Amino acid sequence: MTTTARFDLKMDAADKDIVSRAATLMGTTMASFVRVAAKEKAQALLDRESRVTLSQRDFAAFTLALNSAFTPNTALKSALTEAAKVKRA
User: Fold this and answer.
1) pLDDT in tens, 56-89
2) Burial of 89: CB neighbours in 10 Å, binned 0-12, 13-18, 19+
C-alpha cells in the first residue's frame, strides 16, 4: 500500500487496549486493524445511505408516476420559456 494521506487518531487508554487486543487476535497491526475497520464501516454507511427504500405502496405510486404521461403545469411552462429566453441571449 502506498501512503498518500495521513490520519492521526487519539483515543483513551481503554479504547487503545481494546483495539490492540482485537488487532492481535486478527494477527495484524493496530494501524491496519483500524484502517480496515474504518473503511468497512464507512463503506457500509455509504452503501446504506445511497439507496432509497420504498414500501410496496410507495413503489407502486412511483412506478405509476414514471409510466404515466407527463403534462407540465403552468409554473414549469413559464420556467421553460424563461430558460429558453436566457439561452438565446
Assistant:
1) 999 999 999 999 988 899 999 999 999 999 988 7
2) exposed
Residue whose C-alpha cell is 408516476: 65
CB-based contact 33:23 (threshold 8 Å): yes
Which set of grid coordinates corresponds to residue 1? 500500500
**C-alpha radius of gyration, the chain, whole number:** 26
Is the pTM above the cut of 0.70?
no
Domain boundary assignment for the chain? 11-69
Give how far the C-alpha of residue 22 lies from the chain's centroid of Cα atoms, to the nearest Å: 27
Q: Give the model confidence (pLDDT) of 35-54 as tens digits.
A: 999 999 999 999 999 998 99
